[in-house]
């Protein structure tokens, strides 16, 4: 997430392990931001546009970290390459064609999924979606 938190130097693996319990709390914060943005934008924009902007917000809040990892994974598994070549492709800073196509498909699936949520469940979905994903 790009939500700034105070840091006191390098974080040890033990500290990361102890912090796992706070991941759902971060999810609640992100979910509340999404729900608030949905309410605000819903006052003057159609739902399909609001849902697209919510996905953009989610990508930005996560620092594009998850989408970048997905792109790297798509690039790595898509070609007929040796395991070493796949590893190199996945650690290359450039995005390949398979990664870009994968990202477009992923974002479209997210958008279609949000548009298929009934209006009565949308706010709860927006709040719980980031919580559950960080609890996994």
UniProtKB/TrEMBL annotation:
One GO term describing the cellular component: plasma membrane
Catalysed reactions, as listed in the record: alpha-ribazole + adenosylcob(III)inamide-GDP = adenosylcob(III)alamin + GMP + H(+); alpha-ribazole 5'-phosphate + adenosylcob(III)inamide-GDP = adenosylcob(III)alamin 5'-phosphate + GMP + H(+)
Required cofactor names: Mg(2+)
TM ranges: 20-41, 53-74, 95-113
Alphabetized InterPro entries for the sequence: CobS
One BP term from GO: cobalamin biosynthetic process
Keywords from the named record: Cell membrane, Cobalamin biosynthesis, Magnesium, Membrane, Transferase, Transmembrane, Transmembrane helix
Top-level EC class as recorded in UniProt: transferase
Associated pathway: Cofactor biosynthesis; adenosylcobalamin biosynthesis; adenosylcobalamin from cob(II)yrinate a,c-diamide: step 7/7
Physiological role: Joins adenosylcobinamide-GDP and alpha-ribazole to generate adenosylcobalamin (Ado-cobalamin). Also synthesizes adenosylcobalamin 5'-phosphate from adenosylcobinamide-GDP and alpha-ribazole 5'-phosphate.
Family membership: Belongs to the CobS family.
Protein's name according to its UniProt entry: Adenosylcobinamide-GDP ribazoletransferase
């Amino acid at each position: 997430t790009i939500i700034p938190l105070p840091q006191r130097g390098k974080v040890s693996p033990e500290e990361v392990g102890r912090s796992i319990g706070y991941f759902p709390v971060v999810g609640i914060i992100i979910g509340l931001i999404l729900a608030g943005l949905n309410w605000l934008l819903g006052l003057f924009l159609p739902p399909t546009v609001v849902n697209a902007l919510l996905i953009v917000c989610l990508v930005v809040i996560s620092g594009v970290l998850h989408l970048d990892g997905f792109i790297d994974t798509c690039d790595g598994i898509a070609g007929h390459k040796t395991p070493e070549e796949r590893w190199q492709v996945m650690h290359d800073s450039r995005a390949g064609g398979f990664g870009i196509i994968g990202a477009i498909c992923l974002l479209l699936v997210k958008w279609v999924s949000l548009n298929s949520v009934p209006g009565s469940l949308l706010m709860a979905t927006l709040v719980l979606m980031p919580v559950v994903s960080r609890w996994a």
